[in-house]
User: What shape does this take?
Amino acid sequence: MTANRSTNFFARQRDARKSCRNQLILFAIAVFVIVLVTTMAIRFAWYLYVTTQAHTLINYEAAQRYQQKLSAFAFFDPAFFIFMSMAIVIVILAASLIKMNTLQKGGGAVAEMLGGREISAATTDQDERRLMNVVEEMAIASGIPVPQVYVIDSENNINAFAAGLEIGDSAVAVTRGALTKLNREELQGVIGHEFSHLLNGDSRLNVQLIGILFGIMFMGIVGREIISKGRLSIRLGLPVIAGGVCLIVIGYIGTFMGRLMQCAISRQKEFLADASAVQFTRNPLGLAGALKKIGGSSFGSQINSPGARQASHLFFSESHPDKLFAFLATHPPLAQRIRLLDPSFDGQFPQIGDHGPVADARYKTPFWGTHRWGADLQIPPGSPLLAILPAEVINHVGHPSKENIEQSRTFLNSIPEEISETVKSPQGAACVIYALLMDNDAALLSSQLPSLARAMVVRGQTDNILKIAGQLSGLQQNLRLPLIELAMPALKGLTSMEKRNFLLILHSCANADGHVSLFELSVLWILEKYLNPSEELFRSVSIFSVSRVGLDIVVLLQVLACTGHAADKVKAEEAFHAGLDRIPELAARKPVFDFEEIVSYARVNNALNRLIEASFKIRESVIDACAHCAFTDHTVTVEERELLRVIALALQCPLPPFLEAPPEEDAA
Amino acid sequence: MIPFIVLVVIIAVVAFYFVGIYNKLIALRNLYLNAYTQIDIQLKRRYDLIPNLVEATKGYLAHERGTLEAVIKARNSAFDASKAAAASPGNAAAMSGLNQAEGALSGLLSKLIAVVESYPDLKANKTISELMEELTSTENKISFARQAYNDAVTVYNTSREQFPDNAISSTFNFKTAALLEAVEKAEERTAPKVSFT
Assistant: This one.
């Protein structure tokens, strides 16, 4: 069988090279079409220009000159056509070669281009350990060396790819979603599929295809760059912008040809790879299960990173689904793939949650500091706002009432005098904020200390911070945010470099235990917005369609619903759908609601970071949906309000007025 | 003179042909010997992991002491069998010894794993779940390595029995290599009993 397999191996590699030749023919055709269309277009534009000039110029002599030009005009001027085609071919070839040169570095370079992070063989993270083991198993099963392994942390949908020019120097990458949502057998099936691409020489072909595609699409990319720069400064002038538009149109021809190539080459190979995966794992149901999960989750295997388009033929499953151009899909339909593996499949995808099991031990730490903020004073999480709480002080800064002032006095009194003095200097304020983020648990604290050592402002003050943390440990939880507000003015005194360093260290302190609490989330966003107000000016809006951020919106709504109804699954789901219905495009996809008693806010952080880049209209509807989600039961809990505030702050949108003040019927 | 040269050439060609066969058999033999070392590495890893798992679960499974002791005993005898097998891979007696010892160990191990999975406390324990993951992975690696070994052995055996290779293999004592059969679990061999009580 080895002989059988190895001759197969060489035969497959030969086939791969043969289709490589086909690819070159397709490339030549694509270049020819682009050259033809471009030269014709330019010629025609020139002709139009001369004609209009000749007929519209008032100056007689000038018009005469154009008339002469027009009479001498030969549409098919060989010199012009030869010159133009040479120029275009040179540009396309140069772009392709440069891209291929960067890809020569091997599979790892491709994985990094698509946002992958390499996993070390000695990783201790459980999900990553499992992935590493599965890859090693498949290496033994397929008889090729263990490739580099990458995870794409920013992608929450299920997908994977393999890349590499040589067997010995290839890489396998999976998305974070595949890591958390698939079970062991399903992951094994997916990795088996990717290994068969490596073994069959497809990955080599695929990497070369990226280079070729880049050449074909290069003009379009240049055009888009010109237009986006042109929007910033109109000084560049109309002709340049018009040229950019022309390039984009040409680019679309290239894109179309490129996608034709991607789908022509890719589809058949996917069936072959599925079959080989079963040969390696001897378990068709694992791979079938993974495909079913992709079909069952509302966003399937979609990849959000815009740079991934050029590599869509690399992925395990359709990375850029497109209803309009279904005939250009790079992968065969899911149902068809599944039926070949599991003939009993009835076409019904099992509905799965969009966030996978939160089985990870990291997420099981209670997010609301239970032991630290004085248990006797604590308000149980999830209790409705029946009375005005001290936390309200921040919400009514604009219109303080007598009670508010009273409250702030009691608030100020409850803070130890030593600390209210400390927060008046920038350094002291930084110390207090760090102290608030310090963990009570000794093991977790020790993981935060190394980050503190890198902090600029508070160098050598670690002991002081720990002392303050000790003093604050008796503080009621609702006073933590007001204390931060108290410390904020002094922070303005930091230099810009110190500010950056301060925010960086805050992030690493908050993430040190692999878990972000609601409090940590709010601190990070409040301070980030407060210290970096100018950042907004440079942030470009690049997302104009709800579907590109659909998963992020679902995450927000889900976390919000779970935060508001920590004990009641039915109500939480009701709230989730109330929010979802505000965005019909999203509701039509029927995302599944996953109830979690313990919520992880790290996901919220990622979702917000992506939503910032969405257009104002999308952000506004997100806030609207969130508000409806929180307000379905006519009660807004402390946590819900805090989360809403963070969302509104991060997205630079005002909160709807009914949430600004606590609803009367609840206050009564 | 010319017939003599022709004879020499023919003899030389035949001799080279047989040298080629001999070399091919050597290469195939090395292939399966190498495939065996792959199995051996993974077996060693498993023998290292089992005492760790037993040690980690001991505290929780005081009442399952019998199972734990049986696992350790089976592990020790499988370890001895694997040493004998590594000394002479392909030897029929050594391979069947390893097969039996591994069969007993796998049966007991799957019982232990079933016990561990029925205790949520144990499953939630980080050390134990890590050990379980490592053990599962090693089991998979062993079975994949076994497939590779069996493939290599089959190719070697087929080649040494075919004409004209069998002339070389019997002259130079290329022995038949034994397959390492997949170990059937005891519960798979017996039909499940159904009772309606």
Q: What stands out?
A: The helical segments of chain B are 2-58, 65-87, 92-117, 120-124, 126-161, 165-171, 186-189. Chain B touches chain A at residues 31, 38, 124, 126, 129-130, 133-134, 136-137, 140-141, 144-145, 147-148, 151-152, 154-155 (CB under 8 Å). The CA atoms of residues 60 and 122 of chain B lie 7 Å apart.
